[in-house]
Each structure stands twice: as structure tokens, then as C-alpha cells.
Design brief:
Radius of gyration: 26 Å
Helix content: 10-25%
Strand order of the largest sheet: 2-4-6-9-10-11-12-13
Shape: globular
Largest sheet: 8 strands, parallel, barrel
CATH architecture of the largest domain: Alpha-Beta Barrel
Number of helices: 14
Number of strands: 33
């Protein structure tokens, strides 16, 4: 079988109608091997459930603080910019070679190459983390980054052909005609405790006949959705029908409507066409089901040449998926429906060296690299994108931040913390990134662009390009580039703070930050000072200013005039941008870190030492309009330094000492510094203490 279809196709979890070709696996890790792996994965921050016994036996006290997301979901608001054509909501189903990779580890990892981390989250509604587990919990690294960018982080409930005792989902008690499901309560509590936002429910095998009733499954789903609450999401996958058969409908039909309504959303299979999509919308409108809650599946892998007569198919039937994934998004936007994109990390799996470039082709329509190569053969032809079919063309774009708060330090998921050091994964640190448009042209000769610089400190570099020699310059350089789309009404006023360094001192350029206001046609320009070093700009926006800015802020960008240089010249480095409620500046805050200590944890091969601490805050922190964590309070993360060396960033109140650290520091005095960093990037508290790492703890 593997020689016919290829191993990557076999690993694809949600099939396109060929599940019957795959027999139930009879090999794999033993239960004891799975248990040991699960214990090792706990120390990476991973949580999942392989069996019903694990699921039913779970208690909150069983969890490790490393497994819990601390970053609250940033509320999203509708943008103020005029739409350029219809837009579709986008749900990503992330299956990257089975997932739970080391680079998703809460401790981070050194890498030779970048791996998948979606940098276009402003175009994503929900992100499903998918793995071949009975219940899959998104790693906190993913949940933290998704929440910081306003994206729902969903886990997966997966019943596959090899899953045993599936009727345990349907076990319930009855009282006064109402059914109560213990597992529904358990699943909702798991989502709340670990800090994620719901589930994709994917049932790929019929239930035992003696336990089956569509009304029982409906009641289970209704209870799960109710207990998750209004701010979380439940999505049904189009596999099991109300007749207890696996029959992919590729649409919303009478065979899956009951379960779609119970969940509130549905992800269809991938072999649909325009007629199935149109009929689905008709059924939705007739039954009172929101059409935008129908996510039509788009199989990114369908563009590959599997070498099989049963090649995978998705919309459009010829050349769909891959670099043409955006074609399906465009069609669904035209129909007023939504897109469910399966395996967006295809660009990294199929093009391991050129993953980032191929991802930009998929999302933004960039040209394929000249030297593109893949296992399909003739990649430049097979994976050539249809003009104008990128995902962002028709995906709904959300403003960054929310109406009272915005902060970015331009962190990506991968960085070099030492200039010549290795690439390091920091998946949970990704900040809201600028609008992914490389430049805005004002004529063919002059432009400005931005790029994210990689180094010990994250930053955005803005560059000017002029191809006319300065001594023959005949036109005045006047360019603008948007950085962030916003929708901040400025009720009560907003405080803007930007840290930057002006690099344009000898170019004749006049750089400014540009604020586009909701109730004004002309932007407000804030001049960039030329002071030869890092500078902090502060400005007030809103009714407490002298200008009529009561409508608030809708876009922040960069404006440049007078540039007389030649070629490409760096103009500005921006390190942080924050926008907060004006009154929050006047709220007193008292924070501290205390009781820093070393603790022994684990047994056997998982025995290790952790740094642990506590914090104090104030009730005003919850009222300031700044995000507040249920786990770490006013602190977004903590920096851990030992003997003057930065040992990492942690999003909880504990940090593991690696084996190398333990070996280096055993029976030595340690100067431990813990710095608590707030959600606006400011150092809120610092604690330094001396500790002794005794060999008895090792």
C-alpha cells in the first residue's frame, strides 16, 4: 500500500473518501511505550490523551504548569477599511507530520532551518491543532501566539478505525428526560484549564449499533458546546452521518445537518464543487444555520502528484490545493461561505528548504523561487500559481490588537539570540506582525519597504529604494507604507509609544509615523527625531488632544519624503509599538516577584530541577484595559538569568534547568535573576537571589 500511495498520503488524517483502503493498524508503540512518551512530552509542555481511561481519569491536579497557556485571547473587532470584494473566514487545520515537534517545546529548541509558524494570523479565524490522538490539546506555545494575535486555538477529538470503546463517548445518565454526559463535562474542563478554545470533532468510524442513536450524539455535542461557553468554538467534521455511516458528503446535507447544528459549525470534506457549495448555502438558509459557519475543506496536498490513479482532489479539480489554495478561498468568498484549509504546513513538508518562500506564494502570490524543486517533478509547472489566486486576496483580514490595546515587539517564532549563534525556536513569542505587503509604490522609480530583522533584538527595518541617481533626480520622493490596520475608537483617549532609531541622518529624508484616523481624511504625521540613538516617541490620540480625533485610529504606517539617496538605504529601525488606554498611565501598579527557589520534580529519566517563584499584583491591573492572565496576572512572560547568562523566556511561574545547566551548576552558588515582563513589553518586577544547587536535587 505504501508503495502505491506514498507515505505522506498515508499520514494524512482526514481522508477524501478512501478510508476503507486503510486497514486498522496492528503495529506501533506498546501501551507502556506510549505512557513513557507521554511523560517525556509533559516536560515539553505537551498534553494529549491516547485512551478513554486517560481521559476519564484526568483531574486538574494532574496537569503540569508548563502545559497551560497563559496568554488571554485578544478580542477581535471588525475593521473600518472598505472591503475590496467579498471575503471568506479561514479555519486552518494544522497537521504537520503528526505534530508535537521539539520546536513546539515550551523550552524552545535549536534548529538548522525554520519550520512552520503561520505569519499571516490576521487572516485566520481559528487554528485547529491536529494529531493522531484521541484528544489533542494545542501546545501552549501555539495557544499563546494564537491568542496574542486574536486567533482561536482549537484541539481535536479524533475517533479513528483503530479506536476502541468508542461508545464511551455516548455513555450518559438520564433525569427528567435530560441526558448528562460525563465526558462532555470533562472535555470542556480540559479546554478551560489548559487555556484553549474548543475542538474539531472528527469521528471516522461508526459507533457500535447497540449504543447508537443520532439523538444521543446530538445531545452529547450540545452539552459540550454549552459547557465550553459562548467564547469557544466546536466544529463538526463531515465524516459520520446520522445513519451511523462514514459517508463524506462534501457539503452540508440532511445527513450531517443535525450534528453541524449541535456544534455550531462544520468542516466539510475536500471533494466539493460549486454546486455542492451552493446547495449547502441553500440548506443553511432554509434551516437557520449561518452559512459562514460552513467551512469547506481545501486539501493543500491535493496539488501533489501522488502517482496513483486515485489522486487526491480538491477545488478546483484541476490544479487545486498547494499554491492554488487561494482559488478555493476566492470561490467560497463569492458564495458567502468559509474555508477550512487542511495542512497549511505543506509548504515546509513538501519543500523543506524553500518552505517560507512557497508559503508566501500560497498566501501572497509571490513568484515561485527560480530554483524550486520537489518530489513531484517539474515543480515550476505543477505548482505554478494561477494569477490572482493567493489566499490573502479573499480571506477576511482582521485589524491588529483590539479597541483598547495594541503591542508588538516584532518577534518572530525563530530568532538568533546571539549574532553568530544557532537559530532558536520561540514559537510562543510571535508578536503581531506588520501588514504583509512588501512595499507601496508611488511610481516606478521610488518605493519603501519593510523587513523583519533577525538578531539578538527583534526589530522592523524600513528601507527606501531609489533607482534614479541623485544628481539627475527629477521627481520628489514621497512614499507611504501601511504597517498595521487597526480599529481603536479612542474612547477616553489612547497613548501611543514607539521606540526606534533613525538611520536616515545623511540622506536628506524626512521620515514620519503616519496615523490614519477614523473621522479625518488627512493623516496625522508624527516626525521622527534625529537624535543619533534609540528614541521613544510618545503621543496622545483621541478626545483629549487638540485635534478632532474622537473617531479613533484605523491605520498606523510610515511616511517618507525628500529622500535623495540612491539604491536601497535603511531609514528606520522600530523596536516596539504600544497603544494603550490613556487613563492606564495614571493607574498605580505595584508588582513583585518572591519566593524564588529550586525544586526537584519527576522520577527516573524525567527527574529534573526547576526554578519556581510567586508574584504579587494589584486589583487595578485587571481594570487597566491591558491583558491580564489567569495564570501569570499582569505578566506576559518572565526572563530567567543565571550568573549573568539569559537562560530563556517562560510563560508560567516555573522554568526547567536543562541537563547541561544542572551539570554546570551542581554544588555551586547561583545568582538567579527573574524579570517579569508585562503585556506592553515593560519590566514590571525584578528579583535577584542567591541559590545553591545541591547534588541531592539532581
Amino acid at each position: 500500500m505504501a508503495s502505491i500511495l506514498g507515505w505522506k498520503d498515508i499520514l494524512r488524517p482526514i481522508r477524501d473518501g478512501y478510508r476503507h483502503l486503510f486497514p486498522t493498524p496492528d503495529t506501533g508503540p506498546s501501551p507502556e511505550e506510549r505512557r513513557l512518551q507521554r511523560e517525556r512530552d509533559r516536560l515539553k509542555g505537551f498534553e494529549y490523551f491516547d485512551t478513554f481511561d486517560q481521559l476519564e481519569g484526568w483531574e486538574e491536579s494532574d496537569s503540569d504548569p508548563l502545559q497551560i497557556s497563559n496568554t488571554p485571547l485578544l478580542p477581535r473587532i471588525v475593521g473600518t477599511a472598505a472591503k475590496e470584494g467579498p471575503k471568506a473566514r479561514v479555519l486552518l487545520v494544522h497537521d504537520y507530520a503528526g505534530n508535537y515537534h521539539d520546536y513546539e517545546n515550551v523550552q524552545g529548541a535549536d534548529l538548522a532551518e525554520e519550520m512552520y509558524a503561520c505569519e499571516d494570523l490576521q487572516y485566520v479565524d481559528s487554528f485547529v491543532y491536529f494529531s493522531h490522538k484521541l484528544v489533542c490539546v494545542p501546545p501552549p506555545t501555539w495557544a499563546n501566539t494564537l491568542h496574542r494575535n486574536g486567533v482561536l486555538a482549537l484541539g481535536t477529538i479524533l475517533v479513528e478505525p483503530q479506536t476502541k470503546e468508542t461508545d464511551r463517548f455516548l455513555q450518559h445518565t438520564s433525569s427528567d428526560g435530560n441526558m448528562t454526559f460525563g465526558l462532555a463535562t470533562k472535555l470542556a474542563n480540559i479546554a478551560k484549564h489548559y487555556g484553549f478554545d474548543g475542538y474539531l470533532v472528527n469521528i471516522e468510524i461508526p459507533f457500535p449499533r447497540e449504543a447508537w442513536s443520532p439523538n444521543i450524539l446530538q445531545a452529547f455535542l450540545v452539552q459540550l458546546r454549552d459547557e465550553l461557553g459562548d467564547n469557544r468554538q466546536l466544529v463538526w467534521y463531515d465524516a459520520l452521518t446520522t445513519s451511523n455511516k462514514i459517508s463524506y458528503q462534501n457539503a452540508l446535507t440532511a445527513s450531517n445537518l443535525l450534528f453541524a447544528q449541535a456544534c455550531g459549525g462544520i468542516l466539510t470534506n475536500y471533494c466539493w464543487g460549486e454546486s455542492e457549495a451552493s446547495r449547502s448555502k441553500t440548506i443553511a438558509l432554509q434551516s437557520g444555520f449561518p452559512p459562514e459557519q460552513i467551512f469547506f475543506g481545501v486539501d493543500v496536498w491535493a496539488q501533489n502528484n501522488s502517482g496513483s490513479h486515485q489522486s487526491r482532489s480538491t477545488y478546483p479539480k484541476k490544479g487545486g490545493g498547494g499554491t492554488n489554495t487561494g482559488a478555493a478561498v476566492t470561490k467560497l468568498a463569492e458564495l458567502g461561505l468559509s474555508a477550512g484549509i487542511f495542512a497549511p504546513a505543506w509548504s515546509f513538508e513538501h519543500f523543506p528548504v524553500q518552505g517560507r518562500a512557497i508559503e508566501r506564494t500560497m498566501w501572497h502570490g509571490d513568484d515561485l523561487p527560480n530554483d524550486v524543486d520537489c518530489s513531484c517533478g517539474n515543480a515550476a509547472v505543477r505548482h505554478q500559481q494561477t494569477q490572482g489566486c493567493c489566499i490573502t486576496k479573499s480571506a477576511r483580514c482582521f485589524p491588529a490588537g483590539w479597541e483598547m490595546f495594541f503591542f508588538t515587539d516584532f518577534s518572530r517564532s525563530f530568532a538568533k539570540h546571539v549574532t553568530d549563534g544557532p537559530l532558536h525556536a520561540q514559537l510562543g513569542a510571535q508578536a503581531p506582525l506588520p501588514i504583509p505587503v512588501p512595499c507601496v509604490n508611488q511610481g516606478s522609480q521610488a518605493r519603501i519597504a519593510h523587513r523583519l530583522a533577525q538578531g539578538p533584538q527583534s526589530k522592523l527595518v524600513i528601507e527606501a529604494h531609489n533607482c534614479i541617481q541623485a544628481d539627475v533626480l527629477t521627481q520628489y520622493f514621497d512614499c507611504y507604507i501601511p504597517l498595521y490596520s487597526l480599529n481603536m475608537p479612542a474612547v477616553g483617549g489612547l497613548a501611543l509609544e514607539v521606540t526606534y532609531r533613525n538611520l536616515a541622518t545623511d540622506t536628506g529624508a524626512v521620515p514620519s509615523l503616519s496615523l490614519k484616523l477614523i473621522n479625518r481624511d488627512e493623516p496625522r504625521l508624527l516626525p521622527i527625531e534625529d537624535n543619533g540613538g534609540v528614541h521613544t516617541m510618545r503621543a496622545k490620540i483621541g478626545p483629549q488632544t487638540d485635534t478632532d480625533e474622537g473617531g479613533g485610529l484605523k491605520e498606523l504606517g510610515f511616511h517618507l519624503t525628500g529622500f535623495g539617496g540612491e539604491g536601497t538605504v535603511p531609514i528606520l529601525e522600530i523596536y516596539t509599538i504600544s497603544i494603550t488606554p490613556l487613563q492606564s498611565d495614571n493607574v498605580p501598579h505595584v508588582h513583585s516577584i518572591y519566593e524564588v527557589q529550586l525544586q526537584h520534580r519527576g522520577e527516573g529519566e524525567n527527574k529534573h530541577v526547576r526554578l519556581c517563584w510567586k508574584f504579587t499584583g494589584t486589583t487595578e491591573d485587571r481594570l487597566s484595559g491591558i491583558p491580564y492572565s489567569h495564570l501569570t496576572g499582569p505578566f506576559s512572560y518572565f526572563l530567567v538569568n543565571i550568573n549573568g547568562t539569559q537562560c530563556g523566556r517562560t510563560y508560567t511561574l516555573e522554568s526547567i534547568l536543562t541537563k547541561e545547566m544542572q551539570k554546570t551548576f551542581t554544588e555551586k552558588e547561583l545568582e538567579v535573576e527573574i524579570i517579569g515582563v508585562g503585556f506592553v513589553g515593560q519590566n514590571l518586577a525584578r528579583h535577584v537571589t542567591a541559590l545553591h544547587l545541591s547534588s541531592e536535587l539532581i
